[in-house]
Amino acid sequence: xxxxxxLMLRDILIRxxxxxxxxxxxxxxxxxxxxxxLFRRVNQVCGVLWSLGVRPGDRVAILMENNTEYIELxxxxxxxxxxxxxxNTRLTARELIFILNDAEASLLVTSPALQxxxxxxxxxxxxxRHGLIVDAEDSVGxxxxxxxxxxxxxxxxxDMIPELNEDSTVILLYTSGTTGAPxxxxxxxxxxxxxxxNMAMAFSISADDRYLALLPFxxxxxxxxxxxxxxxxxxxxxxxxYSPAGVALMVEKHRVSVAFLVPPMLQQLLSxxxxxxxxxxxxRIIIGGAGFEPAWVSERVEDELDAKFYGIYGQSxxxxxxxxxxxxxxxxxxxTYGYELPGFRVRIVNDAGEEVPVGVRxxxxxxxxxxxxxxxxxxxxxxETLGGDWLHTGDIFIRHPDGALEMIDxxxxxxxxxxxxxxxxxxxxxxxxxxxxxxVSVIGIAHPVWGETVKACIVLxxxxxxxxxxxxxxxxERLAGYKIxxxxxxxxxIPRNHSGKPLKNLLEQRPCDASQEVxxxx
Length: 522
What we know:
Blueprint: H1 9-19, E1 24-28, E2 31-34, H2 35-51, E3 59-63, H3 68-80, E4 83-86, H4 93-103, E5 107-110, H5 115-123, E6 130-133, E7 144-145, H6 146-152, E8 169-176, E9 182-188, H7 189-203, E10 210-213, H8 220-232, E11 235-238, H9 244-254, E12 258-260, H10 265-270, E13 285-289, H11 295-304, E14 308-315, E15 320-326, H12 327-332, E16 339-340, E17 345-349, E18 362-367, H13 379-386, E19 391-399, E20 405-410, E21 415-417, E22 420-422, H14 424-432, E23 437-447, E24 451-460, H15 468-476, E25 487-490, H16 504-508
């Protein structure tokens, strides 16, 4: 039954059109777009989607860089009760095809820069009926022109817009699991409204803010920060491609007040040559990673840029940011993850699900309005993660006596490299298919720039002697670039416990040096 008092994402756009019609919603290369114009454009996009047979509950996949059309599509799909499936632009066709088929997407939207891989992926996606391409005056291959259809379509009539429930799924965010198979996190109208309220309280986001939308919209952090600024009536400045000089230029040109930069982006910005030639005085907040950024980063952000720094922790299943740490908290304990945001309740539990005392390690579990409702078509995985009415993050934390949280280990061995999640089992599966590989275990190791990088420990079949570069190339054909091992260690045996699970803690303790680098052509 629908909750008539619940707020939906489309209500944000309606509200802003009513009270801030002339305020700038999006600022891109073509110029400012007001909230009234954005509302009109979103209704026009709804008409385009409807004309292509998209209906409430249908999945629409989006393979694009951050741009205005992406924002319009997300809002239009939320407006008409359909489901967006943002696709990681760094995935291979093989990986994209799996997600398209799993989501049973009926429409694929792409851009000219990604048209080739979109064509390849669409050819093997069973449910795709239509394709759209932005920034094209005419159709390109199998993709119809987004702009041409938009000019011809009629806005969706009010009586065609369905009644929505706060628990209606609005976005499927795919994240790999420990088995290597990607899973779609079902995030709802309620999830994103909860995220918006949480971020507004934690970071004081207001209508006066201008957000540099650099984090990709296929990441929960990119989406969450986008929606929170639109909810507040702020201005979004989409940025498609990262460079430290590009960030500085955009901040100066558009007077950006909020930026979210994952490692190593923020370190590169701080180390930018001739940074002083840019006017970065408009920056109010910079959000970065907790536990990955060295303490000097928060110090330099606040001392040199005069902006407040927050180091955060979050995940797709939680619906964006869970904790935030300030400079003062980081100075006191550099490994801190800070405190949970106001909208969350946190428990740290043992394997039996019992809350552990302060100072004792356990799994971080959550309650809050932004959590996903489950994994798409995976009831067993959903029950495992959401069992007992708490979301089990799979991450091991400790609560300190002052209430601060710190992550100790990753229960599921996620590797976080440059803001991207790498799941070892997915890389292990690909390496295991190489005829020379007898056994393999993948771990994350510290990296001075990316936070972590991927290392593979490999046992070879007798008589085989591939180079490190050959195995990395094998992975490159099958995986996104950030998942490819940067280091490979040859081993006689992978240490395992009595149940056959690799002892990754022992592997992580082994030395790693330049002799194991893939770039060496041995």
